[in-house]
Amino acid sequence: MKTILPFLCIVLMASSCKNETVSPAEAQEQRAKEIHERVITLDTHCDINVKNFTDSLNYSQDLNTQVTLPKMEAGGLDVAWFIVYTGQDSLNTAGYAKAYDNAMAKFTAIRKLCTEIAPDRIQLATTSDEVRAIQATGKKVAMIGIENGYPVGMDIANVKKFYDLGGRYMSLAHNGHSQLSDSNTGEADGIWLHNGLSELGKEVIKEMNRLGMMIDISHPSKEAIKQMIQISKAPIIASHSSARALCDHSRNLDDEQLEWIKENGGVVQTVAFKAYLNTEKNDARSKVENEVAKRVMDSMGVTWLERKEVRALSAADREQYYEAYVKMVPIKNAKVKKMKDLPPAVDVGDFVDHVDYLVKKIGIDHVGISSDFDGGGGIDGWSDASETFNVTHELVKRGYTEDEIEQLWSGNLLRVLDEVEAVAKRLQQQP
């Protein structure tokens, strides 16, 4: 018996080891899950609609928007920068007043989510220390970015108002030239309003430095970006842009601009926006999907519009169109899934191709991640916040270490925020 028992133990152990053997792919996925759990995942660009921040309809529910608390929890997205976005309109007193009201409504909505709707699940942060402290409690983190400085109007005091409400980055233009800055859209017709920044725009850059608000260069023109970097005493960010060398779109950054950002110490938040990642794949796939979308919209009694046509709508009509569009998307997606022989979709692999390029071009210290969810962003594999893990998984597949993944997801952006705050403290101490 003494000789048989040890033999049986060895057989059982061998059998047990054989049953527990995992494939390299399974081991890699498990490692990715562990990394995803440990690092702070931060997305710098998630648009909002104030209608989804009410007592009866809000982000505590699983709405058909790309970002909600249930989706963030399911996908392990820790930090969402909710966006105070205002579309470009007339450069006059009435336009500025309307834009200001829109901005204030969005500030109020975001703060309401954190203080009234779901304070047990999400909290507003304005510093990197607050991000880490909130995340450590298990809550999700909200931060606020401002897309388009148009609501500032002609009153620079509004920059401080927005900062005091929690705004920690701002771009000075969107689609169309603002009173502060030219937009990248000027490339289409060669018409510029300021040849970069207006005089007020230059003062706004200085005020953002003084307050500790990050300067966002996504959307302004190349000349405006150059002037921002020349004026700024702090690092800048591109909150949602990708590499122009891989996808020739005016919203992306060319190699010269990337070098400016590297020298400035800033960070490029690579964006998961199909049209900015792979034009050829996007065009082929969109041609098919848009035909399906048009039929769905037609069944809803809504006329399909191209992006340029949507931008030409009044703010009220644009919002109404987007409401119909959001309802259409899941119906369209369900129909597309049943179709065969579709052109390949722009996916997480295409997204990380841009991350790879940026890392090789300007270094791991200057690259981050953004989605532009609920503002046109979303790709196959990262179509909403619930699929956030897939980005980490792809990064692990590409050979990025845990430290590098932490940098990409949040470390670099929070480092810039810290440096911007440090510059502000120095400026405020000057006589």
Give a written overview of the molecule.
It contains 16 helices and nine strands. The termini are far apart. The strands form two sheets. Strands 1, 2, 3, 4, 5 and 6 form a six-stranded parallel β-sheet that branches. A three-stranded parallel β-sheet has the order 7-8-9. By secondary structure, the protein is an alpha/beta fold.
What attributes characterize this protein structure?
disordered N terminus, 431 residues, alpha/beta, 2 domains, globular, single chain, TIM Barrel
Topology:
Layout: H1 4-20, H2 24-38, E1 42-47, H3 69-75, E2 79-85, H4 93-117, E3 122-124, H5 128-136, E4 140-147, H6 157-164, E5 167-171, H7 199-211, E6 214-216, H8 222-231, E7 237-238, H9 255-264, E8 267-271, H10 274-277, H11 279-299, H12 307-311, H13 315-337, H14 348-362, E9 367-370, H15 389-397, H16 402-429
Parallel strand pairs: 1-2, 2-4, 3-4, 4-5, 5-6, 7-8, 8-9
Q: How many β-strand stretches?
A: 9
Shape: globular
Major sheet description: 6 strands, parallel
Count of discrete domains: 2
How do the SSEs run, as a string of H and E?
HHEHEHEHEHEHEHEHEHHHHHEHH
**In percent terms, what proportion of residues is strand?**
5-15%
> Ends: how far apart?
90 Å
Helix content: 40-55%
> Segments where pLDDT lies below 50 for 5+ residues?
1-18
**What's the alpha carbon Rg, rounded to whole Å?**
23 Å
CATH architecture of the largest domain: Alpha-Beta Barrel
Summarize the model shown.
The chain has 431 residues and is of the alpha/beta class. The chain is built from 16 helices and 9 strands.
